[in-house]
Write a structure and sequence with these properties.
The chain is an alpha/beta fold and 216 residues long. It has helices spanning 14-27, 51-56, 76-79, 97-105, 151-162, 179-185, 194-198, 202-214; strands spanning 4-9, 32-38, 62-68, 86-90, 110-115, 133-137, 168-171, 189-192. The longest helix is centred in the N-terminal third of the chain and has 14 residues, at 14-27. Its cofactor is Mn(2+); Fe(2+); Zn(2+).
């Protein structure tokens, strides 16, 4: 199982974005980040829109975006003008998921569908064969440091049982206390926010998480 631990970036200004990209690349040595985009409607928080910031930043890091926005289909063509290679779209945010997946896949993008903690895995059934991974929210989305929702672990186990060949990504309160449980449930991709950014030694923080997974 190929394991990925990916720092997330959730910011309100261009300066914050550039600072965090630089830290992730130069201090932590990561090669991919997960950029949260929030519109203040789908979730009660707003961030940079991301288009201009990504276009103008100088980095070798691969960037994936997590679209926590209503009607993401209205943004897809604009995103396709950027270097973003991976997209996470919420099943709760659109009635045009098929169209979104098709548009992204036609442009060779990596596509995942996100589920909020209270959303049933049944909502994925129509799209399973068309996507690259499933993204489970283990917190209510929109902010760093939200409370972990342990009930999602059982949902992840159920999904992994029925769709063992579909990679699972998790997002929310991933830290040394939770990552082992998530790995045992079948998760192979971990989005890490607060734990990473609050750690004094960020490279060591990622190594700590990796070691926990290796011992599972």
């Amino acid at each position: 199982m190929f394991v990925e631990i990916i720092p997330s970036i959730l910011v309100k200004t261009k300066e914050e974005f550039e600072e965090k990209i630089k830290t992730a690349e130069e201090v932590a040595g990561v090669d991919r980040i997960h950029l949260d985009i929030a519109d203040g409607s789908f979730v009660p928080n707003s961030t940079i829109n991301g288009f201009n910031e990504i276009t103008n930043v100088s980095t070798d890091i691969k960037i994936g975006v997590h679209l926590m926005v209503q009607k993401p289909e209205n943004q897809i063509q604009r995103w396709l003008e950027t270097d973003v290679d991976k997209f996470v779209v919420h099943v709760e945010s659109t009635k045009r998921m098929e169209q979104i997946i098709n548009d992204l896949k036609e442009n060779d993008k990596i596509v995942g569908i996100a589920l909020n903690p209270n959303t049933s895995i049944d909502d994925l059934a129509d799209y399973i064969d068309e996507i690259d991974f499933v993204h489970f929210m283990t917190v209510d989305p929109g902010f760093y440091g939200s409370k972990f929702v342990p009930e999602v672990i059982e949902k992840i186990k159920d999904f992994h049982f029925y769709y063992s060949d579909v990679p699972i990504e998790v997002d929310g309160s991933v830290n040394p206390e939770t990552i082992g449980l998530l790995a045992e449930a079948g998760v192979s991709k971990f989005i890490v926010g607060s734990y990473f950014w609050k750690s004094k030694n960020k490279k060591e923080a990622l190594e700590t998480l990796n070691k926990i997974i290796e011992n599972k």
